[in-house]
Amino acid sequence: MKPRFVNMRSSIRGFQITSIALIGREKWLAGCLRVLLCFTPLTFLVDGLIQISIGGMSFCNLAVSATVVFCVVVGWTLVQGKGSGAFLGAIGILVLVLFIKAFFQGSWNNFVPWLSQYQYYFMVPLLAYAVIQSKLNAEEIAKTVRLISVPVAVISLYFFFTKNYFGLVSQEVLNQYAIVGTRYTRMLGVFGSPNVAGSYFAIVLAFDFLFGAKGGRLRILYRSVTFACLILSFSRMAFLGFALFLVIGILSGDDAIFPRGRKLISPHMGALLIGMGFLAIVLAMAGSGIYFWHTGTDFFENPRLEKWVSFLKTFGDYALVGHPFALHIISEGATLSDNSFLMMLGSFGILGSIPYFYLLIKGFAPSLGTSGSRIGVLLMLLLFLFLSDFMALYPSSYLMVFLLIALGRRRESTSA
What we know:
about 425 residues
């Protein structure tokens, strides 16, 4: 029989090895997530340059998806974080709906093309689970976002002013996004889409207001350039979302947006001035004939609103689990790609949509609260979801996941 101190030494040694392995996995997870933050904004650019596809998926899409799955596997080996189970539950709901959908159809035909269109409804909860499991704090996330946003903004501005996208964007797309009365097109950035560019820069600005240092010439320059990129995207969704975030933050007197000691005016006056400033930009653009707000129809006949009406007329046909794999979500000739909630209902029906969004809300619950910054971010997100298929606006939807979890991390650190 071994002496007791020998057994104790063996136990301590085993604990040390386990601890080292645990720390190693945590570092791997944090490192991979930082790589994702830096790489995802550039995937459209890299894919266009290398033009490699594997199994019908672009190289970058496959690499990002594989990295997210790897992060989930590593995160699974760690102590489960608060709310992480809700994100896995959301994935489970969608998988269940897929099997029910396949059972009704009798086959999995056309599943792969269908999945390529709706992959981000699966990937967003998976990424959220991985980030929750990591030890990344809010400041680390914000620092990485600022680091990559600088070259993204510089390249995007170069593309905008030169219109030289190195063949990544077709002339047809450039003509589609031409700004009336000018020789420029809406900023597509390194993303190939004005809505993705606009929402990305809006979230980057929210990150900087919430987690960046206050004041300084470099900070003013950084925010000015980023805001210029947001404006040049001419994305009404992004423009209104960021304006809402700012106004709510100022009205609430949130220190992150309206620091104490620098309040030369009241929060209400500040919010009024910000709102008037945004309105002046819209009116100036509209008065110059530049495309920004005009839709060519009366507001109440807006096509995006009409889609709700047309969808509800036929929703009963696929109310339980959504449209079959072979069908795109089209209702009376109108696609539903301008609204995440309509896309979700049309794709997964009531059986998938209601529990899915409930579990996402439950998972992000630590990020929610009554402070102005949290309410502002939440309202910005809801506006994005209502005015676009934001879940599929990659990489903006991924960046929003990091923002929400960073808010939760800051809340936990301040209450500790």
